[in-house]
Amino acid sequence: QIRFLLLQNRQGKTRLSKWYVPYDDSEKQSIQIECHKVVTQREAKFTNFVEWRTHKLVYRRYAGLFFTLCVDVNDNELACLEAIHLFVEVLDQYFGNVCELDLVFNFHKVFVILDEYFLAGEVMETSRQQILSRVHEIDRLLEA
Question: Residue 6's closest CA among 82, 84, 75, 72?
C-alpha cells in the first residue's frame, strides 16, 4: 500500500503531495523535508529505494523532479518504480512533454490523473490509454 506520494524539485519545494494515510500538518512538513534529504543526498550508483522509518521510499528522478512513493516494506520495489514511470508517461502524454510548471499551474488536473490511477493507496488502473480517456472525458464534462 502506498502511504504517500511526493513530487519535489531539487531545491526541496514540494510541487505535489498526496497522502493516503492520515498525518497532521506538522508531521507532513517534517516528512517532506526528511524525504527530500534522503533522496537528494543518495548517490546515483545506489538503488532507487531505501528503507525509511518502518517503511520504504521508492523514488525516481525525472529532469529536476523527484517522484517519491512511500510504501510498505514488503511491497515490490520494481512494481513501484514502474508505477512512477507510468504516472510520468501519462502526465507526459496529457500535457505534451510535461514540465514542472505544468504541475504547478495545472495541479488540479494532475490530481485528477492521480485519482484515476491510484485509489486509496493502491494502483487502480494500469492502462495508460484508459487513464487518459477517463481524464479527457472529465475534461469534456467540465467544459460543458
Answer: 84
> What are the residues whose beta carbons fall under 8 Å from the beta carbon of 135, sequence distance 6 or more?
94, 109, 112, 113, 116
- 132 and 98 Cβ atoms separated by less than 8 Å: no
Classify residue 52 as exposed, middle or buried by CB count within 10 Å of its CB (0-12, 13-18, 19+): middle
Query: Of all helices (H) and strands (E), which one includes residue 3?
Result: strand 2-9
**Contact of 73 with 80, CB cutoff 8 Å:** no
What is the C-alpha to C-alpha distance for residues 22 and 15, in angstroms, rounded to an integer?
A: 19
β-sheet with 65-71: strand ranges across: 14-19, 2-9, 65-71, 55-62, 49-52
Map residue 57 onto helix, strand or coil: strand
Q: Where are the alpha helices (DSSP H) in 41-106?
A: 77-95, 100-105
Tell me the pLDDT tens digit for each residue of 14-32: 999 999 999 999 999 999 9
Q: What is the pLDDT of residues 63-98, one digit of tens each?
A: 899 999 999 999 999 999 999 999 999 999 999 999
